[in-house]
Amino acid sequence: MKLTILISIVFVSLVYFTCEGQRSDKVGVQTFESLLKQKKGVLLDVRTPEEFTAGHLPGAMLLDYYNDTFEKSAAQLDKTKPVFVYCKTGGRSSSAAKILRDLGFKEVYDLNGGITAWKNAGKPVEK
Question: Is 19 a catalytic residue?
Fold first, then answer.
């Protein structure tokens, strides 16, 4: 009986930490900025073209999450490079990050709080 309980606890712990590891790519503004400077990668803005035109992170590439070709376009990116993804507040970028991981990207960093958090931290945007 005790062995069964112990095995169950170990199994549940392994599942929990494995799932948590898959979500570990959501990072705060300071970490996102630091990693962006350290690593050569692709910076993706997954908002709409109108949102992008109103202001985006310097050097960002637009890949509209709502566009029907999002997944196909994302699949054409270099999977060996880190991908930095953001949206307005973090909802779309979380979904986009999952798609990117499912497509085989190994390093995906999702800006927690999106461009809103970026701006609130006083970081630069360009138009």
Answer: no
